[in-house]
Every structure is written in C-alpha cells, then in structure tokens.
Amino acid sequence: MKHQFDEVLQFESVAVFAARPNYVAQLQLGAGELDRIIGKYELPGDKALWAVCGLNHCNTQHRYGYVICAKDGQETNIGKDCGAREFDVEFEEVVARFQKAVDAHAKIRSIKSLLNERGEMLARLEKISPQAQIQSERMRQFCGAFQHQRSFWTQLHKCAKLGGVVRAAARQDKDWSTPGSGREQLVTVGRFAGSSVLLDDGTNLHQTLNKTVRPWLQALDETALVSADQADLDGVLREAGMMKRLIDKTEKFVTQASIFLTKENIAQLEPICTHLMRKYDAADARADLEKWVAGELSRPLGKVQGKKK
Ligand SMILES: [Zn+2]
Asked: Exposed, middle or buried by CB within 10 Å (0-12, 13-18, 19+), for 43?
C-alpha cells in the first residue's frame, strides 16, 4: 500500500490535534486497523497538560506520543509505547514509515531553503564581483607603489594589526631608536580606516567568485539534490556554507578597500613616516604618499572601469 504523506506534524499542545476534524478522544483498534502516524506530540512538563490516551481504553496521561489515523480515517492520540503494546510488530513498520516521511520532509525543506538561498547568493555575487575587481586593482596599485618601501610597509602592517592606530613614544628624543627606559608612554599619533584590507588579502576573491562560486551555484540542480542520499546532501550544504563565506568575505574586502584607499585616508598614513621611521626612509615614503594622494602614482583603472566609446 502506498502512503501519501502530505504532512508531517509535530504537536506541542493537545488542543491542536484535538481540533483536527477526524479526531476522536477514544478509539478501539485491533490488528490491521491502524493506517499511519499523522504526527508526534511532545507536551510541556506539567502533567495537567499531558494527553489522555485514546487507544483501547488505555486512558493514561502521556507526555510523549503519536497522533495516529485508523484505516477508517478516524484519528486519536496514543502514548509513545502504547502502539507497540497494542499492535506489536505491525507498529514498528508504521513508525518506520513515519520516520521515513519525517526524514524526507526534512530533506525537501533543506533543499528548498538551499535553492532559495542560491538565488540570493547569486544576486549578491553579481553585485559584488565587478566591485571586487576594481578594488583588487586599486589594492594592487597601492601595494606596487609602497611595498618596496620596506620600513614603511612593515610599520604600516604593524599599525594595521592594532586596528589602524599609529602609536609612538610620547617624547621624541633626538634619536628615536635609542632604547627607552622602558617607561616610555605610547600615545596615538595617527589613525586610518579600513586597515583589515592589509591583513587579509582579498585581491583574488573576485576570481574565486567567478571561477568557483558562480559555477557551483549555477550547477545546483533540484532533481539531483532530491535523489542524492543524506550524506551527499550534507556535503552539498557544507559546500554552500563555504560559498556563502566567500561572498561575505568579498563584500567585506570591497567595503574595507574602498574605505582604505580614499585619498583622505591615505593621507592619514603620514604619521607612520614621522613617528615610526628613520628620517632618511621617512622622506622617501612621505614623498610617495604625497604623490599617491595627488593621484600621480595610481594608473587609470583598466578594462573594469573602461567605458568604450
Ligand atoms: Zn496509552
């Protein structure tokens, strides 16, 4: 016999299943008269709220149990152990069918939610990918312009690790490198934004989105997912989590890079030269910062920005 489970229910109060149209408080059922389990019930700890068993005059109050349906269509509630007692092995099959339906419903739900999320993720990806390409090119230009200033580059990254805060000894003696008494007080002499973009390279993320994430999302196929076994589906859901994190990461990169790379913000890097570097190196780095702020070190962006006339 083929059973059509169009619903799998979980009841948390007697009132809800007692309101079902075919529900009866008492039912006498013999072997072969049980059709299926409609749902499970799990009631609160207060015994007054437990369900009085409707099966074969059991009349016991049960906290956990099932709502069952007889072959004539009538329904009642039974305790979780009463079915095995009254129906013997027949009940095991009924429970197994019910559990299969519960699992199938859970699987369909997770597939539906994955496919919904796929649309959302693709929309985010299409929006962020071109922006990520632009910001990657700008970051590469910035790195290309300053990476060779080794001392500046090192100090810049130290400040980034402090969240974009430039800290220096309160009193600047003639030679900054003279080891201090150990009591030197550090004060904040500068601050810049978007510092995390220096610590977590995001310049390849747009390629990952285009080469890996988009094709993966587009290849998701409802029919294949429905026929996949649970282990495979779990694997797909885990991968979906990874894809989502890559999109999150790209969005963060774009936000941080666009904050970091404004001229105003780059100008805020100057205290690194003044307070954290030797004078000779500082002069070079400062000159490059000025050129950058004046737009002399960045090339016009390539194909990503080019509007062909
Ligand atoms: Zn019972």
From this structure: buried
* CA 13 to each of CA 19, 79, 80, 90: distance values in angstroms, whole numbers, following the listed order: 11, 14, 15, 27
Whole-number Å distance, alpha carbon 59 to ligand 1 midpoint, is: 6
Joined tokens for residue 157: 């990254």
How far is ligand 1, taken at its centre, from the CA of residue 61, in Å?
Answer: 7
The model carries a pTM of 0.76
Beta strands, E only, 8-102: 9-11, 34-42, 51-52, 61-62, 64-70, 75-79
CA of 89 to the centre of ligand 1 (A): 17
End-to-end Cα distance, the chain: 70
Rounded-to-integer distance, Cα 67 and Cα 54, Å: 10
Return left, alpha or beta for 57; rule: phi > 0 is left, psi -120 to 50 is alpha, else beta.
Answer: left
Tokens 């600047």 identify what position? Answer: 172
Burial of 93 (0-12, 13-18, 19+ CB in 10 A): exposed
132 vs 127: CA distance, rounded Å = 9
In the chain, domain spans: 9-87, 120-293
* 69-105 per-position pLDDT tens digit: 999 999 999 999 999 999 988 999 999 999 999 998 8
CA of 17 to the centre of ligand 1 (A): 16
CA nearest to 38, candidates 66, 72, 78: 66
Helix (H, G, I), strand (E, B) or coil at 168: strand
CB 210 within 8 A of CB 129: yes
5 CA to centre of ligand 1 in angstroms = 24
pLDDT at residue 303 greater than cutoff 60: no
